[in-house]
Amino acid sequence: MSPRKKPPRRSGLDIWFQENFLRMERILYILVAIGIILATLEVIYDGFHALLRAFAYKDFALGVLKVIDRFLIALMFLEILYTVQIVFGEEYHLQCVEPFIMVAIIALVRRLLILAFEISHGEVTPERVKLYMLEMALVGALILALVGATIMLRKMRREERKHAS
């Protein structure tokens, strides 16, 4: 058996750089969080305006789609903000992945809604319909895969809690 080596002793300069790097990282996370909060408030405000203007469109479905689009973007921002909150809570393991999966699911649902609107309200050739259907099938499969991943993550977390107690 070989003797275990002691880890090299860190210099004061290394420690100073690491501490200041972590401080700078926290400051940047705070700035990102403030930016996301402001963007979310703007998108929600715009969503309410779109809701009020929805009745003014010739095609009511287009107005409703704009409202849904704004609020789904706001949900994406809120999920990203939740991820930043997790970073502040130092809960890095599996919990940090779930908000990103939720953002992806919301973005994919948003894409499905836009595709459905484009198919039903546009001049579409048969070849274009095939491409739309292929994209919708792929987006649907991705949504199902991400929902499955979320279920698996939650099940794993429950198992971890059972074994910890």
Report the helical percentage. Answer: over 70%
Low-confidence stretches: none
Could you give a short account of the major beta sheet? none
The proportion of residues in beta strands is: under 5%
Distance between the termini: 37 Å
Q: Secondary-structure element order, as H and E?
A: HHHH
Mean pLDDT, all residues: 83
Structural class: mainly alpha
With helices defined by DSSP (H or I, 4 residues minimum), what is the helix count?
4
List keywords for this structure.
mainly alpha; 165 residues; 4 helices
What would you say this structure looks like, in words?
There is one protein chain. The protein is mainly α and 165 residues long. Helices cover 82% and strands 0% of the residues. The chain contains four helices and no strands. It has helices at residues 12-53, 60-88, 97-121, 126-164. α2 (60-88) runs antiparallel to α3 (97-121) and α3 packs antiparallel against α4 (126-164). 7% of the residues are buried. The model has no long low-confidence stretch (mean pLDDT 83).
Summarize the entry for a quick read:
With 165 residues, the chain is mainly α. Helix content is 82%, strand content 0%.
Topology:
Elements: H1 12-53, H2 60-88, H3 97-121, H4 126-164
Helix pairs in contact: 1-2, 2-3, 3-4
